[in-house]
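Following up on my earlier message about zinc ion. Here are the inputs again, as you asked, copied directly from the submission form:
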Amino acid sequence: MAATQQVGSGVHRIADGVVNWYLIDDGGEVALVDAGWPRSWPRVKEALGGIGCSPADVTAIVLTHGHPDHLGAAESARKASGAPVYAHRTEVGRVTGKAKGSSPFALVPGLAPALWRPSAFGFVLHATARGFMNPTWVTEVTPFEHDDRLDVPGRLRVISTPGHTQGHVSLLLEDQGILFNGDALVTYDVLTHAEGARLMPDEVNGDPPRTRGSLDALARLDAGTLLPGHGDPFEGTPADAVAQARNRLS
Ligand SMILES: [Zn+2]
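Thanks, got it. Here's what our run produced:
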């Protein structure tokens, strides 16, 4: 079972195991922000039903990045709704499974040293049971660029926050001061279970120095709530969240 939590006007968080994805319901037109695990499609349908909508109401699927626990059910949602799947131009190869390094097995060497910890090994079991090692790639992707304002429910603005993956983005719902920041900054460490604003573990960041650099871009944004890919919402400004994450680095 996935838990649904309202986190803004028409904005819903679905905590699907240790991953979050979000629905933005803008007058009956719905954007899916990230798409959970490869096996999350039944939960997407259930969550849509829970807000009085159906797959036909989905008009956009917007991805922060192309890891299998975030692009998960995107292809199923695309096929069922006919809605486009959006991702950053430099992330398209990963989302379609064509880029070098898009295979989930590419993450294994980085993760291996952490797996002696029961909590980290637990993540691997959790992820594997949800289809992590067998992603369904997206066959058609609509690319966007930094600073684009997407013609989707919520009129999301694209903020490039690379490092976790090359084309990772955060998405700003300006009207409500809500930032969907994906895995650029999270409030839960999937490998250690530690909570609080922090970076993802370096084991799963494609380019750790660049991930740290993207904190500058986040800190400048005007928002009052951050909605990460893992963990609870952060109530505060991006600058507050970034300060906490930086404290934990030192
Ligand atoms: Zn990720």
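One observation from looking it over: Residues 65, 67, 70, 164, 183 surround zinc ion (CB under 6 Å). Hope that helps, and feel free to reply on this thread.
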